[in-house]
Structure formats: structure tokens, C-alpha cells
Amino acid sequence: MKLKPPIKGRGAQLNIHNRFFQLSHEMRDDFLEFCQKEGEEADKNKTLYLEVFPKTIVNKIESPDVGMSYSMNPYQGCEHGCIYCYARNSHEYWGYSAGLDFERRILVKKDAPKLLEALLKKKSWKAHTIVMSGNTDCYQPAEKQFEITRQCLELFLKYRHPIGIITKNALILRDLDLLRALAEDNLITVNISITSLSEDTRRILEPRTTTISKRLGTVKVLSENGVPVNVMLAPIIPSINSHEILPLAKMASEHGALSIGHTIVRLNGAIGEIFSDWIKKTMPDRADKVLHQIENCHGGNLNDSRYKTRMRGEGKIAEQINNLVRLARHKYFKGSKMPKLNLDLYEQSKDGQLKLF
């Protein structure tokens, strides 16, 4: 059945209260009725790009189970609108809602390249893989206009510094020249997120993301150009995409991916309310079933914050999902793995030029 969310092109269907604010804002029925009578739009549903000025751009990751030590995010908020996105909660720290604001108030860090270069030139900095998009996608639609990610890639190449990228947008192929050059020195890995092979599912889960066929094509092009690719089947949501694990893994392998990763959805913080509202509006026939199965994976709760457990879940449903992923790895990726990145070239290139001796 083809389903469309009520608010066109958006994942969240509401702006929920920011937990850090004493006052709350609501769209009253009498105001909506007034707008309808006057022929006015109550909500223009436009995306705003707002420049911010952070003091640093690279963050040290303290969590022991996320698979990265350092991350950087040229943008805060993400227009992709993925309804399950764990990063939604971070928007509250900037004074916005984790709901629609997260998708429509995009904070742009134009100084990111300057801040990155200042870090890479520090004598005290030692090479560690820095992952772009540890929080929000560095190739979201804003990147087409601002090209901050590309400027940062040029710096990683200049200083021969290792980098990881997480994205679900085919826009990454715009920078194939830089990616290929980084790959020649074993300085880059790319993680492409693919959550479904169904376009109907993709449209309601991730309304402003690139199509599945383009994402698979991106995996193929990167792989053919020597850029190592891991496909993230993340998150796996019971009764929405959990039945697609094996076919997803097969397609990833056939398009050249070296490995797959996965997480089981957890609806931490404000996301529980946002996701529950969304699924009751877009999938009313199975909303309760999906929510109860998510709870089954996390000890009766929609969220689980325990390290080592929160990503994989527990209980029978989580066990079935994790077993399927293990089977997929054995069947389609046996003997294949992502390379370790080169940490040695950076020390020779700190002045921006590779030394001969």
C-alpha cells in the first residue's frame, strides 16, 4: 500500500516541545481555521539555512560503542527528514525542536574548513580517523549550495589525513576526484546508509533522501574507483524493514560493498514521541505492532541508553535480527572486510606538502 505523510516532503509531522524551554508553542485549531478562511498558509514548510559560528569543528567521541573516535559535522539539523534519526535530539541544544525544526532549520558552519585546517596544523594533533557525518549528513541538500564538505575533503587530501564519511546521498559522487585521490593513499572509507529496497518505504522513512537505485549506484561507482564502501543497514525497524536484511545485503555485495553494518532502532529522547506520532499517521494499520516490537527489543521501552546493548537490542526479536545479519555476512561477505586507514602520511604532510625524506 502506498502511503504518504500528511506534511509533504517531511518526516516529522509536528514540532514537539523543547525540553530545555519553560514555555511551549502549539498550533491551535482556531488559528488553523482562521488561516483557512483567509486563504493564508499556517505553515509555509520552507527550509531555512542559518549560519552559526562554532569555536571548534572536530569533536571527540566518548561513547564506547559508536565505532569512531572523532567526528565533524558541517551542518546541524538535516533536511533528509529521516523519522528515526538519533541526531534529532541535538537540535534542542541549539534552541529548536527535534521535530520539524530539525528538518527545516539547518545550521550552516561556513567556517568549518578554516577550523579544520587550524586543527590539522597543530603540532600536538596526532592522526586519528575523523568521521564526517557522525551526527548529521555532510551531503544533505545544503551541501549542494555551500560545498563545505568538499572544502574539507580538499584539506584532508592536502594534509594526507585519514577520513571516514557516512551519507545516504548520491551527491558524494560530485567529489569523486578527491575521494579517488584519498583512496590511492588508503586515507578514506565511505559508509552508505541503505534502509530498504522499497521506494514506498524509503519515501515515508526518509522523505528527502536520494532514491535506493541511486544509492546502490553510488556504492558501485565508489567501489569501481577504489573507494572502500561499507553499507549501513541502519536502523533495522521490526515489521518495517526487518524482512529485507538478506536481500539488502545481497544487493550491497553485488554492487561492490566490502561489508555491512547494522543497528536496531531505538527511539531515544524526543524521538519516541515524534516517531509514535508519525507512524500512527502514516501506518495506522500496524503502528501498535511496530511500537510494541521496538519495545520488545529494549526491555519494554522505546529507548535503551545502555552502552553495548542499545545498538543491538535484546530479546527474541532482536536476536532474530542479529542472527539474520550474521547470516548475511557469512553468505555475502565472507573473507571481505574494510581496510584500516593509513595514519602515517599525516606526520609527513603537516605543513601541507608531502616530504620526500
UniProtKB/TrEMBL annotation:
Protein name: Radical SAM protein
InterPro entries (alphabetical): Elp3/MiaA/NifB-like_rSAM, MJ0683-like, rSAM, rSAM_sf
SMART domains named among the record's database cross-references: Elp3
Organism this protein belongs to: Flavivirga aquatica
MF term (GO), any: metal ion binding
Record's keyword terms, sorted: Iron, Iron-sulfur, Metal-binding
Keyword Iron: yes
Domain Radical SAM core per the UniProt entry, residue ranges: 64-301
